[in-house]
Design a protein that fits this description.
Strand order of the largest sheet: 1-3-2
Oligomer: single chain
Number of helices: 7
Low-confidence stretches: none
CATH architecture: Orthogonal Bundle
Distance between the termini: 35 Å
Helix content: over 70%
Strand content: 5-15%
Structural class: mainly alpha
Order of helices and strands: HHHEHHEEHH
Amino acid sequence: MKPSKLREIEMSCTCFNLRKATRAVTAVFDDFLAASGLRGTQFTLLAALYQSETATVTRLSQALVMDRTTLTRNLKPLQDQGLVRVSPGEDRRTRALSLSAKGRRVFGKAVPLWEQAQKQVIASLGKTNWDGLMKHLHLTSERMNPY
C-alpha cells in the first residue's frame, strides 16, 4: 500500500476521524466525571434511562444507535453497582431497564461534573464551531441510523 493512500485514509475516512474525535472528547468527559465514579459512556446510558424511566434493551439500543450485545455488556457494571435495575419485561423475551434510587442519586451528583466537561469542550472548540458540530452530528445520526 502506498503511503499516499494511507494518508488519504487517515485524512478523509469518516469512520477513522469520528472515532478519533470521539476518543478525544470521551477522555475529557471521563476526566471530569471521574469523581462521580462514572465514565462518560456510563453517564450517557444513565441519562438515557433517566429520561425514559423504563425501557427495553431493544428500545434503548435503538435510541442510542448501539448494538444490543454492546449495550448489555455496558449495562452489566452499572447493574453490578446497583445503579440500573433489570427486570422481566412484558413477555419472556424482553427485559425492562430502569434506574434504581441509587442510580438516580449517582446520576444527579454527576450532572454538575458533566456540565463542567461540556463547558470545557465548548470553550475548546468555540461556540460557533460547537453549534456546527452538534448540527452535523445530529444530521449524521439521523441519516445513518440503521434503526
